[in-house]
Amino acid sequence: MLKIEHTICPTCSVGCGLNIISKNDTIVGINAYKNHEINEGRNCNNCTDTIELFKNNKEELSEDYETILNKVTDLLNSADKSRITVICSGRLNNEDLDKIISFTNNQKYNLITYEYNFSKIDSDILASYEEVEKADKIITIGDIYRNNPLIARRIIHAKENGCYTININNHKNLTAYNSDEFINLDAFSEVMDTVKSQDLTDNTIIVVNKVSSNKQYQELVDFVKENNIKILPVLKHPNSFSVLEKTTPSTIHDLVEKCNNSDILILVDENPAEYVDKEIGADKKIISFNTTKKLFQDSDVNIPVRAWYEQEGSFTNNEGKTQEFIDTIQDDTNELKTIRMVFDELENAL
After folding, report:
1. Of 234, 250, 280, which residue constitutes the final position of a domain?
2. Domain extent for 292
3. How far apart are CA 228 and CA 233, in angstroms?
C-alpha cells in the first residue's frame, strides 16, 4: 500500500517541503509538497539525489544496541575526557543537536562543529526570501543557481521585476550565465575588494553560499551593516542556522588541531573527509553515528541510527524559520534508534 507523508528536505538550508512516498515501510519516491510556502511545489535535483542515497544506502542494524553501547562505553572509559572529541554539523535536527550539546557539556568532552566558515549574524541584517524577490540589486557570491536552485528561483523573480544582478566568483558558473554582470576573480580572497567597489542601492541584497574564511565572512557582514543593506547566507545543511546560533563553529585549522590532540573521535552523521584534505583519524579510535552506509565507513564502532524521515524533529532554515517534521514511515518493526535515544542510553551507561 502506497503512503504519502509531508516532511522537510534534508539536503541544504533552504527548507523546502516535500512528500515522501513509501510502500511497505520503504521509500519508493518523492513528490513536491505543492502548498509549501518556500518551494511552492518544486524540488531540485539536490533533493532527488539525497532521497536516492537514502533509498539505496540506508544503514541497517548488524548488532544489537546493547553490544554496540558496551563497546562504546569501554572505549570512552579508557580515554582521558579532554582527549575525546565529538564532531557534528547542521545535518542534525534541533532535538539531536540540543542533546549532543548537553551530552558533551555533562561529560566534559570537546565539541566541534564545522559550517564552511559561516558564523552567527544579527537578525536585522538577514534578508528573507520575500525580500530577495523585491530587491533592486542582488550581488551573488558563489554559484547559487547550481547549488541552491530554489533561492535562484527567487532571484529570477526579482529579475523579472527589474532587479539588476551581479555574480562574483573565481570561475564562470551557472549563476554567472544568468546574471546581468559577472566579475571574474583571480582568487576568491579578492571578494571583499570587489564588493566594496560596487554601487549600492538602499535595496541591495548580498546572497552568498561560499566564503574563503571566517575572517572574510565577518568583513562581508561588517560591510553590510555599514551600508545599511541586507545579506542572505545560504548555508550548507538543513539545520546549519541552529548550529550557528547554539555553537561556535571551528575553522579547518582549529578542527585539525583539536582532532590531532584527541584519542577518540565521535562523528555524528558527519564525515570530515568532505572538507579536510588530510587524514585526521588514522591513529584515532573512531565512533560513528550513521544514517547511510556511505557517510563514514572506516570506524571502529559503527552506530546505525534513524534518518530524518523515520522520526519527529525540526530544522531551522536560512531565514531562521523552524519547521517540524514527522515520522513519515511509522514502521513499528523499525529497530533503529534516533541519535538522541542512543546518547540518552550512552549517558546513563557512563
Report:
1. 234
2. 65-116+241-307
3. 16
In a domain, 6, yes or no: no
Specify the 3-state DSSP secondary structure of 18. strand
Could you tell me if 116 and 296 are in contact, meaning their C-beta atoms sit under 8 angstroms apart? no
Q: Which residues contact 112 (CB under 8 A, 6 or more apart)?
A: 85, 86, 87, 88, 250, 254, 255, 258, 259
Q: At what angle do helices 339-349 and 94-107 cross, to 10 degrees?
A: 20
Whether the Cβ atoms of residue 179 and residue 198 lie closer than 8 Å to each other: no
Q: Which three cell numbers stand for residue 322?
A: 523552524
Q: 111 and 255: one domain? A: yes
Q: Do 163 and 136 touch, CB atoms closer than 8 A? A: yes
**Pairing of β 301-304 and β 285-290:** parallel
Exposure string over 317-331, b if 16+ CB within 10 A, otherwise e? bbbeeebebebbbee
Distance CA 58, CA 113 (A): 24
Hey, what amino acid is at 46?
N
Whole-model pTM over 0.90: yes
Residue 111 sits in a domain whose CATH number is: 3.40.50.1220
- Predicted local distance difference test score (pLDDT) of residue 297: 67
* Number of independent structural domains in the chain: 2
Alpha-carbon gap, residue 23 to 18, rounded angstroms: 17
Tell me, yes or no, whether 196 lies in a domain. Answer: yes
Q: Which three cell numbers stand for residue 50?
A: 539525497
Least confident stretch, 43-47, 71-75, 128-132: 43-47
Residue 20 lies in a domain: no
